[in-house]
């Protein structure tokens, strides 16, 4: 796959994209003898994916939801109202993950790079994270390099322990493979994955389907409105993304108000999360240290004196 091909497919009509999803999923199910399930988060993307598959491909296909304990109550309620959904859970709490590995800040990719630069014993890897590889890939953004020396850790590990590991366990125990509602336009990592595998991957350890890869957010809302399908009402409360309430990936982007919403609507949960610590530093202090806007910030970067 190449970038030009993605741009071409993203320009298709909604009808063409629906047909594409049906074709991709049908091929995936045929090649795997229907041994598949829908990874269902309760968000708008997986809601659309679930509707297309159950409407046009297999009305009885199983959906699986991982209840991490950190989802918005509105999302959990919506999922419980959806038919034929199996709940799974992680084996570890986010408090334990943050204490051991660090806070989920900036982005999954950047937090991984920062963690590796800070803790690796490999000088080669550290240099790649500081200066990039030969083609410039793999480098920590200049504006976030100060986090290497922060008095707390930054990490992407929460996604692994709260989502990936529980789903991997379910796949192994059930013999089923996931159909996932992610889009290539969401991040560089997802774009690169699409370039490598396309919408269906049958590699030994990466058997999965990503039928919405060529879709955009506008397509998602167009489908919802055209077919008038139910979706989680949290989107009507000015929330742009679902997922874990405490997630800090993307919270530095100007205009992001996730923590404001959380404090206004779930004060106890907000205060609980802000008190979680890594290396004696609270999440509230870590956000302040990064200069991120949130309800209790002073709009100044916090300095620690040790």
Model description:
The chain is α/β, with parallel strands linked by helices and 306 residues long. It has 2 domains: 3-93 and 159-237, Rossmann fold, CATH 3.40.50; 94-156 and 245-289, no CATH class. 45% of the residues lie in helices and 9% in strands. The chain has helices at residues 3-10, 14-31, 44-56, 73-80, 94-101, 108-119, 123-131, 157-174, 188-197, 217-227, 258-265, 267-274, 283-289; strands at 36-39, 63-66, 85-88, 105-106, 177-180, 200-201, 208-209, 248-249, 277-278, 281-282. A 4-stranded parallel beta sheet has the order 3-2-1-5, with helices on both faces. Strands 4-8 form a two-stranded parallel ribbon. Strands 6-7 form a two-stranded antiparallel ribbon. Strand 1 (36-39), helix 3 (44-56) and strand 2 (63-66) form a beta-alpha-beta unit. Helix 6 (108-119) crosses helix 7 (123-131) and helix 11 (258-265) crosses helix 12 (267-274). The chain is globular and about 50 Å long. The mean pLDDT is 92.
